[in-house]
Amino acid sequence: MALSISQWAEASWWGTFVRESTMGFAIASVFLLFGIVLLLGGVFLLSLRLFGVLMADQPVSQVAAAFRRWTLIGLVATLLSGPSMYAATAMRYYDSPAFWLEQQMLAVAIVFHFTLWHYVTSRDDAPAALRAFTGILALGLWFGVGVAGRAIGFF
Amino acid sequence: MSLLEICQAIENSQIGTAMRESNYYWMLNGSHVLGIALSAGAIFWFDLRAMGLNMRHMRISEVYRQINFWMVGGFVLMIITGLLLFWARAAASYGNVYFRIKLVGLALAGANAMYFNYYTARGIAAWDSAPVPPLRVRMAGLLSIVLWAAVIASGRLMAYTF
Question: How far B2 CA lies from chain A's nearest CA (Å)?
């Protein structure tokens, strides 16, 4: 199934457009990087708040509210630009172990982001241990996605 | 010895060649991206506060004090990994137009930050707690975001134009 989806994506008009335009793939990768900066920057700083080492005098929910909209914009930017890059060279991605690792980590990270992450960062009464666990998981997952994504160019 | 010849010597040095041909070169590349995410990500949050778009309930000096360590930490990681990447591809980078745009962007972003620290921030007591700071402060924040976006975009485009 993954093979047929990759073949379909690469042959699609969008995949063809991104692949054959002079700077299409490069521009998509720039927007992906903008998204990563917004997303990872926000997740990193909010994780530091969960650890109690940043803005410790501010309620977690208030810090999270300030970060939420922008990290969401970052996530949307990555989810729009990433598939465009995939569509352009889907068969090469299909053969890349780093791509599949990234996709699996991304799926887990997105579910985590809208469940445990949202739950813990929306309240001020979460136990310190749960906050620390959530912060470590967030950093591991999102930075893992970032590193695996960068590795696609090499593996 | 011209600048190009110096770059060629750097690229062809034992360390430059070893890094370029190493199986772990991608890790250096990934660390550079993480450094950018940390530094530019942290700077972005301060810029939003300077523009009066986020964390309006916090004093600007307080946001700066809280985020500064992580901005600097990410920046140091970005610069160290960036210099190592340059070492491996110095001659190729020298002639690359996006590399030159990136350097100019970095210099302007640095100048903007210094101007903010040494001139704009002198009167901070008057607007430190203002939800929406004066125009010159908001412009400094906007300029910082634009310049860092240019640095990130040109850095990424470098890889496609070697």
Answer: 31
pLDDT the model gives residue B137: 94
Residues 6+ apart with CB under 8 A from A106: A145
A2 pLDDT above the threshold of 80: yes
- Cβ separation of A33 and B42 shorter than 8 Å? no
| Contact criterion met (CB < 8 Å) for A41 and B48 | no
Residue A60, chain B, CB below 8 Å: the answer is: no
Q: What is the pLDDT of residues B99-151, one digit of tens each?
A: 999 999 999 999 999 999 899 888 899 999 999 999 999 999 999 999 999 99
Query: A45-77: b or e for each residue (b if 16 or more CB lie within 10 Å)?
Result: bbbbbbbeebbeebebeebbebbeebbeebbeb
The residue among B48, B57, B102, B160 with the most chain A CBs within 10 A of its CB, best to mutate, is B160
Q: What is the pTM of this model?
A: 0.88
Residues A105-114 have a mean pLDDT of 96
Long-range contacts of B128-135 (CB under 8 A, 24+ apart): B128/B59, B128/B60, B128/B61, B129/B59, B129/B60, B130/B52, B131/B52, B131/B56, B131/B57, B132/B52, B132/B56, B133/B50, B133/B51, B133/B52, B133/B60
Q: Is the pLDDT of residue A151 over 90?
A: no
The answer to whether B88 touches B25, Cβ cutoff 8 Å, is yes
Q: How far is A1 from chain B (nearest CA, A)?
A: 30
